[in-house]
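Q: Sequence in, structure out?
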Amino acid sequence: MIPTTATDAEFRTYVENIKNKFNSATADQNSKGRAWYPVAHDLAIMFGDGNVRMGAGIIAALSANKRWSENIRLATDAANGNVHGHVGNALDKVRAIMAGTAPEDVLPMAAKTGNFYRNIVDPSDPNAVTIDRHAHDIAVGEVYGNEDRGLSNPNRYATLARAYMVAAEELGETSSVTQAITWTAQVEMLSGKGTRGQRSM
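A: Exactly. Output:
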């Protein structure tokens, strides 16, 4: 069973695992990670025709289980009037956002998708942490593959997000930069091991 909370020792292990992954990043991975959310922010402005929240909502709603390149292709199509390529619930959210509904009203704001949206809108937001499968595995120090990570549990998600915040503070970085650099290092480490490629955050 996936734990929903962590002991003090387990939590400290999460923090140290995140810091170790951050410190293992190459200069190139560090640079890519630092650029990740600013680039996504600029794309959101473009997709939202100047409305960064709309654009970020479109990207986030289409992000689940999609490679970043596919996520952006679908967001580009949506911005051009062709909303397709995802499950019905996600497409309904995109349509609602494009019709003027606030993304905060349709995205699960306490979960990965909502935090991803917030990171894109404001990469400096200290309280938004995108915990996807890679961010989870970095913290726990184990690659889960296709196994359930329990991220739908709010307590589990919040514990891991807090670990990234603590690690970021100890590293002297923002939580989004810490998460993006470690994510980049993890994905590139796994890329030669038969994974399905880079996925959206």
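Residues 193-197 have pLDDT under 50 and may be disordered.
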